[in-house]
Amino acid sequence: MAHTVVLLIVSGLLFASPSYAQRNRSPLGNPIDKIRAQADFDPSQFAGKWHLVAVASECAHLSDSYRKVDGVSIVISINETTPQSPMWVSTFYPKAGECWHIKQIYTPAKTPGRFYLTGRGLPVDVVVGETDYSSYAIIFYQKFQKITVKIYGRTPQLSDSITDKFDQLVVDVGLNEDLTYYFRAYGPSSHACHFAGVSPRRL
Fold first, then answer.
1. What is the mean pLDDT of the chain?
2. According to the model, what pLDDT value does residue 95 have?
3. Segment 60-87 mean pLDDT
4. What is the CA radius of gyration of the chain?
5. Region for 145 from its dihedrals, namely left if φ exceeds 0, alpha if ψ lies in -120 to 50, beta otherwise
6. In DSSP terms, which residues pair with 88 in a beta bridge?
7. How far is CA 80 from the centre of its chain?
8. C-alpha separations of 154 from 31, 51, 108, 134, 136 in Å
9. Max intra-chain CA distance, the chain
10. How far is CA 129 from CA 69, 113, 139, 165, 175, in A?
């Protein structure tokens, strides 16, 4: 059970097919469609390693368990350099002295910077809302008509001006400030995912 909770915190995502999402969308519209994607999104600049800094979400597990997660990072890879390239996203996090690994494919939508994440559960719409490619990225996720917002950094810590921008965007999408969770500084347990030669365990 503990392992399941940690997995939900790290991924923040459930999976399914886009056709299911279309059949179940609210007649009032799709909330994530109101969020603008990063202008002239360039996946080649976006690729590489990012550290998870904070999450804003209504996920019930986060309020009790987010402090237990240490050193979450993602590595984004692409095979092409066009705006419509799929992105391979590998999430790494330490647990019990080992490095655990979740691998996902973000399939591009028609608009650059928008993606679908599909798999065994319900579909997730993904929007890269804002990034400067060199220091921070703010990504929006939607499942069941509810928005989750994550901010990543090229380094584990970001400037106050960037985190203030993230906090405002969280409020703009209708989430309360008390639903934002900043992850603790990367501690010794996170080293399990940073040593050269480590072979991560696949989930």
1. 78
2. 75
3. 77
4. 16
5. left
6. 77, 105
7. 21
8. 28, 6, 23, 7, 6
9. 51
10. 25, 8, 6, 12, 16
Give the mean model confidence (pLDDT) for residues 4-27.
Answer: 39
Contacts of 141 (CB under 8 A, 6+ apart): 12, 13, 117, 124, 125, 126, 147, 148, 149, 150
Q: What is the DSSP letter of 20?
A: H
Mean pLDDT, to the nearest integer, of 2-18?
A: 39
Say how far apart CA 69 and CA 78 lie, in whole Å. 27
- The pLDDT, as a whole number, for residue 94 is 79
Least confident of 19-23, 25-29, 172-176, 193-197: 19-23
Q: What value does the mean pLDDT take over residues 14-33? A: 50
Q: Is the pLDDT of residue 146 over 60?
A: yes
Instruction: Extract long-range pairs of 160-169: CB within 8 Å, 24+ residues apart.
Output: 162/135, 162/136, 163/53, 163/54, 165/130, 165/138, 166/54, 166/56, 166/136, 166/138, 169/129, 169/130, 169/138
Within the chain, residue ranges assigned H as helices are 2-11, 18-23, 43-46, 60-65, 160-172
Q: Which of 8, 123, 140 is nearest to 64 (CA)?
A: 8
Amino acid residing at 19 = S
Specify the residue for token string 């065994």: 120
Nearest CA among 156, 186, 130, 177 for reference residue 52: 156
Short-list 196, 41, 15, CA closest to 122:
15
